[in-house]
Structure formats: C-alpha cells, structure tokens
Automatic annotation (TrEMBL):
Residues 340-560 form the PPM-type phosphatase domain. Keywords: Hydrolase. The lineage of its organism: Bacteria, Bacillati, Actinomycetota, Actinomycetes, Micrococcales. It comes from the Bacteria. This is Serine phosphatase RsbU, regulator of sigma subunit. Pfam families: SpoIIE. It comes from Sanguibacter keddieii (strain ATCC 51767 / DSM 10542 / NCFB 3025 / ST-74). The keyword Hydrolase applies. GO terms for molecular function: phosphatase activity.
Length: 567
C-alpha cells in the first residue's frame, strides 16, 4: 500500500502516477514509507515543479523523475526507466554520468554545465543533444551523500536552430558579397554547406542548354540521376520531396514558379528527420534562388542589408545602454556600518548586447544587523534587468520589515514571487547574509555571520592570517522555483581582520570549464588578501579573474575592523 505522503505528492502527474504504481519494495529504496526524509523532500520537489527533475538515490542510483524529465528520456527509455538504476537506463552515456556523479559525491557540491553536448540513444539512433543542467548532492539523515538531484533543461532545438541560422547567415553573406555568375555563386554556397554539421552531403544542379547539370563541388554520392529517385520526383511534382535523410528542393526564380535548378541535401544522421530539417533545406534553397535572381542587382541588395544591420545594431545598442542605466541606477552605494569596512562593485559584461541580471544590496535592519544580498536573475536582456529590480526590491523590503533570518527571508520571497505571479523571468540564484552586532557587553569584535544560499556560488572568507576558506554548505534551489520549500541556514564566526567575499557566477564560471576550476582560481586570487585593503583586494580579484568579463560580475567585500576603528 502506497504511503499517504507519496500519493499526495505524486497523484497530479503522469510520471507521479507511474511512480505510485511502481513496486518500490522490490528495489534497494524499499517501500516509500521507509524512505529517508531527504529523499521524501526531494520527491516532493520533483513532482511539484514543471522543470525536468530526476533523482538518483541509493547504492544503485535508482531513478525517480517527473513529467518534464520523461520528455528527455524519449519514447524508448521512458517505458522502463522508473525505478531502474541510472546506469541501466543511460548505458550509452554512463561513463560521463558516472564521472559527474563522482564529482558530486566527492565534493559534496553541485556540478553543472551550459550547452553541454550529449550523444544519447533514446529514439532508436545515436542522437546529438544539448543540455543546461545542475547535479546537486542529496544528503541523508546521517550526513552522507547518498543521491543526486539532476535539474535539466534540454536546449537541443535552440542550439541546433542557432547553428542552422548561423549557416544561413553565412550563406546569405556569401551570396550577397560574392561576384561572378550563378555557377560561381553556387560553388561558394556548396563550400558553406560543407561546413554545416547539420548536413552530411549536398549537391546543386542548374539548368544548362535545357538540362540540369551538377555544379562543381556537388557530392556525387547523392541521388542525381536515378529516374525513380528524389531528382525525378521533384521534376514531376515541382515541390519539395524527401526520403530518409535526403531532401530535394526546387530552385525557383520568379513568381510563376519557373524552376532553374535543384538543391539536394542529406541531413545529419545524428538528428531526427522532421519538419525543421525540411524547413532548413527549404530556407537554403530560398537563399540560393534569391542569389540567382539577384545577380544583376547585387549592389542594391548589399546596401539594403548593410542599412538593416546598422539599424538593428543601433536599436540593440540603445536597448543595452538603457538596461544598463536602469541596472546601475538600482545598485545604490553600499551601507557603511560601524565596525565593518564594506565595499561593493558591479562590472558589466563587455560582450556586445549582453545585459545581465546581477545585483548586490546592503542595508541595516531596524535591529542594527548588517544585511547583504548578492543575486543573479536568469537571462541577459532588458527583461532580466527589470526582473532584477523587482527581486532586489522584494528581498530588501521583506528583510527590512520582517527582521527575520536569511532562510525565512528567502521563503517569504518564494511565496511573494508565486503570489504576485512574477513568472519564470524572476527565477534567480542568490545569497542573503546577515552580520550581527557584537554581543552587548562584549569586549571583542567577533561577529556571527548567518546566511542562506539559493543555488548561488559559495561565499568565501579571507581569514586574518591570510588563509582562504570557501563556505561549502549545502545549497538550496534557486528563488522562484516553488513556494513552500524549507530553506536552510548556516552560521560562521567572523573575527577581527576576517573578510567576507560574496560574488556572482560571472567571476568564476567560464564556458568550457567546470565550476571547481573557477573556484580554485578565486581561492588563489584571494590568498594573502589580509595584507591588502578591500579596495585593492577587489581590484586584484577582478583583474585576475575577469579582466574582460563575458558575463556581468557583482562583488561585495566586508572586513571586520579592530575595536575602536570607526572608518
């Protein structure tokens, strides 16, 4: 008989109902009534969100997942994945998964990736896929890491679409700037198509003396002569035809549909044959048709393209400048509490048209407690900048008015985000930290630091002796994912001369590098930071780790001053 807590959690989704019907007592997990509280909380989160979530728990890494993750499994795997060891379900990628899980277990820290390529077999063929994901450790009641929570977002369609758009962009550029007749231009087009990983082979045929002749550079292995093949079918029907991964499209140069050529392309065997592949080849054919039609009017086309590009760049540049001005207007000067030296920096990305949602905040609550917030809203556009302003004001108002502890502040923020229907744009990672006043009557300067971490990079402390400590504590989920989640809170003592360092991920994350590499570089940059002023230390860290940042960076440093130093 299924446990009441489990049925209440899982009944509202298809995967949940499958989980309810599964004979868990036959697995190493045992009956749900015996499950560890951490596993129960993880399962509740799994089935309460639409984000793809998978839990691997126990000695065999037994799988539990929600409807979002079921879509990732594909039609073949999801028929038998529930309750199975992950190595049996993801056999073809187990080596990579095992390595990643091993890092989670050994570091007791999340491991993630952005636009991570995975070749998986979920639909009967080896498929190229891309994911942005985070694998977090799950710790049982004894304090041991016994599982992993994988929160993933498949971005294959986006990556492939961007890649195909890049091919089309390159093709348009070549067609609009090249010189020569139609054959010369089609030869250049074949060179562009040969560079596309989305096409295995391609061929172009043009009319010559009443016959269609293959342009030099065409792949001779494609069906160009078979009277029963694609070539003949397009000639008969006058429209797009495809068989297997091969797609053939007529080249038409006027409104009357006069066909002057033919494009034949073979899609990548690592991508499904679907409407997007056909549309991609048809867009290529459209570009080729336009090039053939516009040979005599190339200069006008080129001028129009340049003008349009300049207008787009000017519009996007204005949008970026406006968003950055909005962002910086909300990043007020840091508070200067008695007994603490506090400085904050915001450094925008130097990549064109990349606007981030990073922010910092510092203020005194009514009881004299110094409150610090550092966060990063998902996204890089004016929407992210606006969402950043909403979240910053929301957290500040809750913290000041309630005078509650960091975990409770974030819990109330989750509730407010859901209740005000701020939407997915208000999802963010963040840290809220409170530095308490020294105890009344105390002769020392030591202070208690309390903080709660919503999936944000670990805070760091530069001790008075120059040593560096990353405050590796178990992180919670990002803000805005779900309400009603019980968030954790941590404590640490800050002594005279100690420096607390809070930052956003733009300081430590690099595309193509794992997070642990960036954290190690941060630790090296902070070493012996006690000998520097906090201004010098911040400038040293930024110049070492983010001299030309590809993402926004927010950085806050707080140092405990000696007794009597009021600065």
């Amino acid at each position: 008989m299924i446990s009441e807590w489990f049925s209440h959690t899982a009944h509202s989704s298809q995967s949940g109902r499958e989980a309810m019907a599964f004979p868990w007592h036959e697995t190493p997990l045992g009956d749900p009534s015996t499950w560890d509280e951490t596993l129960r909380q993880s399962v509740r989160l799994c089935f309460s969100t639409q984000f793809p979530v998978m839990i691997a728990w126990g000695p065999e890494m037994t799988m539990i997942y929600n409807d979002g993750y079921a879509q990732i499994l594909g039609p073949n795997k999801r028929q038998h994945a529930m309750g199975k060891p992950i190595r049996e379900v993801w056999t073809e990628i187990w080596d990579d998964v095992e390595t990643m899980f091993g890092m989670v277990f050994s570091t007791v820290a999340p491991v993630g990736g952005a636009e991570h390529k995975i070749v998986m077999n979920r639909s009967g063929f080896d498929e190229e896929t891309y994911f942005t994901f985070s694998c977090s450790p799950l710790v049982d009641s004894t304090g041991q890491v016994v599982g992993v929570m994988d929160i993933s977002a498949e971005i294959t369609d986006q990556v492939v679409s961007v890649r195909r758009l890049s091919t089309l962009d390159d093709l348009h550029s070549q067609m609009q700037t090249s010189r020569g007749d139609g054959v010369d231009r089609m030869g250049l087009a074949l060179e562009v198509l040969a560079e596309s990983v989305d096409l295995s082979r391609s061929a172009i045929m043009l009319e010559s003396d009443g016959q269609l002749v293959a342009v030099p550079g065409s792949d001779v292995g494609l069906d160009l002569t078979d009277p029963e093949g694609l070539y003949a079918a397009v000639l008969r029907e006058g429209r797009t035809q495809f068989v297997g991964h091969d797609v053939a499209v007529p080249l038409v140069v006027d409104d009357h549909g006069s066909m002057v050529g033919l494009l034949v392309a073979e899609g990548s065997p690592m991508r499904p044959v679907d409407s997007s592949l056909v549309s991609f080849v048809e867009l290529i054919a459209s570009a080729l048709s336009g090039a053939l039609q516009a040979v005599s009017a190339q200069r006008a086309v080129l001028d129009a393209r340049d003008a349009r590009t300049a207008l787009i760049e000017a519009t996007e540049r204005q949008s970026r400048e406006t968003s950055i001005a909005l962002q910086q207007s909300m990043l007020t000067p840091p508070v200067q509490p008695c007994g603490l030296d506090l400085m904050a920096w915001y450094q925008p990305s130097r990549e064109d048209l990349q606007i981030g949602g990073d922010w910092y905040d510092s203020f005194l609550t009514k009881n004299g407690c110094t409150t610090l917030v550092v966060g990063d809203v998902t996204g890089h556009d004016h929407v992210a900048a606006a969402a950043m302003g909403q979240l910053r004001g929301l957290v500040r108002a809750i913290a000041f008015d309630s005078e509650q502890s960091p975990a409770r502040i974030f819990e109330r923020a989750d509730t407010a985000i859901a209740g005000l229907d701020l939407g997915n744009h208000s999802t963010a990672t963040a840290v809220v930290a409170q530095i308490e006043e020294p105890a009344p009557g105390s002769t020392g300067t030591s202070r208690t630091l309390r903080w709660s971490n919503a999936a944000h990079p670990y805070p760091a402390v530069v001790r008075a002796d120059g040593s560096v400590e990353l405050l590796r504590r178990t992180n919670d989920i990002p803000l805005g994912i779900t309400q009603g989640f019980d968030r954790r809170e941590h404590e640490e003592l800050l002594h005279e001369g100690d420096t607390l360092v809070l930052y956003t991920d733009g300081l430590v994350e690099r595309r193509g590098e794992i997070l642990s590499t960036g954290l190690a570089q941060l630790t090296d940059a902070l070493a012996d930071g006690h000998a520097r002023t906090i201004v010098d230390l911040a400038e040293h860290v930024l110049s070492s780790l983010a001299p030309t940042p590809t993402d926004d960076v927010a950085l806050v440093l707080v140092r405990v001053l000696p007794a009597g130093d009021a600065r």
